[in-house]
Structure formats: structure tokens, C-alpha cells
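Task 17 of the worksheet. Students: predict the tertiary structure of the chain below and write it out as C-alpha cells. Keep your answer in the requested format; marks are given for formatting as well as content.
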Amino acid sequence: MKGDLILPAISVSQLHKSFRVYADGSSTLKDRLLFRHRRKYRLQPVLRGVSLEIRKGEAVALIGRNGCGKSTLLKLISRILYPDAGSVQVHGRVSSLLELGAGFHPEMTGRENIFTNASVFGLSHGEIRSRLQEIIDFSRLGDAIDRPVRTYSSGMYMRLAFAVAIHVGADILLIDEILAVGDAAFQAKCMERLLALKAQGVTIVIVSHSMSQLERICDRSIWLEQGEICMDGPPGMVHPYYLEQMGRQNQPCEQPLMPSPVHLTGGRLLDAKGEPTACVTEDASLTLCLHYQTTEDTCVQAAVTVAVYRSDALLCWSSNTTLTGEAAFDLHGTGMLQCEIDMAPLANGQYWVDAALRHPETNALLDAAHRMLLFSVEHSTKEKGVVHLPHRWK
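Model answer:
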């Protein structure tokens, strides 16, 4: 019993995986059979010596750009693929949602596919029958459950696959971006069920590009970059660095004037008492302070742009002093600009602030600071969405 308690749910050691990339472009089965001995290929490494352990009951996010090895790692853990080198050890029954509709027979009905799919996960016929109605109810397929799944939309496929996967009594649940399919109401229902499974001690490993989804359910994020672990830690620590890296690569090519007459040297948020803060609670009136320094002993006129982004890079708000009719600021030497902002409408989550100085007439960029401030919003409200809208019922 003691030994079982200390065993990790998933243990990966020095995992390597490569795929063949063929150069001749043969696309038909006939070509591949006739010229199989002549075909040239190169090995494309996908995972390079990945090692990690995931504890029982832990919820872990795998993040990274497309092609970094996230999906391959999940397929190796689920034993759909096998490594070129290294080892994968899994302790417990695994249920996986890795490809939309995988494991479903297109000519069979949804009901028939429930029996087939659940039996693959190790359930007996009697166990499946006892859970059948609960699976159908969760999928919300109604009468469509008795139609061939080839007639299903991608959202219907996902609802059926998810409903089966969460009802097989798995110890470990692997999910690859499948929650991006389906309507918002069902996505919310899936998230609530994942949180319930997590509370029951199920180990969850999930791949998603939605940072807000991952931050809601996961205790830990593993950032993969070019087949290697770049960073491993709490989502609140890993995601800002990941998004900053993605932001650098996706930033427009606009460059500030060289040499720039003024630079942004830092920034901070002050609460209603004038104290530095990085957390917005019920008292959401904050003062944004932008510090600057001119490069010469002359006055520089500048307009200011400020933008607030959510942790998944969603632009929540942006303002430019020229567009709002503010007079240009006269900047000289070392100084500070202040802007009072009411953050109350922002929903709970992680955010960052971008700032830029521009020429008030030509709009030329003088200087910019990407992700100069990070802050969180922690309201007591249970409302969901992107923003909190003040309202009252009558």
C-alpha cells in the first residue's frame, strides 16, 4: 500500500521520438509499394530526451507552439506510439481523447459505439449497460444516439467521445485540444466535469492553446519547445514567460525611431491607498504609473497608448491619448505619467499591460514596452465570461 502511494501516475524517462519525412513526395499506395526501396527520407526529431513525472491526482497542462511534441507525448503515454529510446511507465487505467472520433466506427450508431469504445477501456458489458443512460444524457445527443456516427457533426463526435471517456472509471485522463470543438455551453459543462474528476483524484494531462482554460483546471504547466522541456512549474509562473516568448515572435515589424528621444524605463500599479499592487480585488480603482527618461536635454512631445491583455493574449482594452482627445505630453528628463483605470469590469484571471509612446502628429513609434506589468484579478463574484457587467434585476 505504501509503495503504491508513492508511485507517480506517469513516469517518462529520456524519451526520444522521430518521424520519417520522405523527400520524393509519393502519395499513392502503389508508388509507396513499388518504390519503397528507393525512397529517401530524413528523420525529423519530435521529442529529444524528455523526462518528467506526474503525481497521482495532479492536473498538468502541456503548452507550446504547434509541432513542439505535445500530441506526440500524449500518444506515447497512451501507447498509441512507441518511443525510439527511453521509457514510459503508467500506473492506472488510462482514458484518452486524442483525436476527434478516434475509435468510433462510422457505420455504427452512437449507442453501439458506446459499447465498443467503452469495452476498449476495459469495461464489461454489464458495467457499460449500467452507465449507458448517464453517458447518453451527458452527450446531449438525444435521438441522434441511434443514428450512424458518420452523420454526426464534429461537435456531436466530441460530445460522444467526451461522455464515454469520463464514464469509464479511468485513473488517468489524457486530452488533446478536443475541448476546442463544440458549443460554449458544452465546453463549460466539460470543464465542470473535469474539475469534479480532479477533485476525485483523477490524474489529468491536457493540451490546449487556451491559457484561461488551463489556468482554471491545472496545478502545473509544462512548456515544450522543439521537443524539449523549456519550463515546468505553476501556470501562473510558466504562462507569462511562454506568452512573452510568443508575443516577441508575433510582434509586428514596426520599430521605434532610432535613436529614440525617449524611453519607457518601467511601470507599476498603485491601489487606492497609493501602495504598489499586482492584484485587483473588490476595490478595482488603480493608478497606472509609467516611468520615462528622455535621451537629450530637450522636451519631447508624446502621445501614450496603453493596452490590457488577458493571459491568453486576448486584447481586453486599449486606449490612445490622441484618439481620446488628450493633449500631447511634454516629456523632459526623468519623469512619470499616471493614468487612473477602473479594472472592475475585468473578470477573474491573469493579465498584462503593454505601453507605447508615439509622436502625437505622425504616430511614429518612439518606444514600446511589451508585458511591462503583470497583474491578476480576484473578485469574489462567481460570474463567468470575459468581463463583469454591472447589472441589477427588477
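Marker's comment: The radius of gyration is 26 Å. The CA atoms of residues 27 and 121 lie 34 Å apart.
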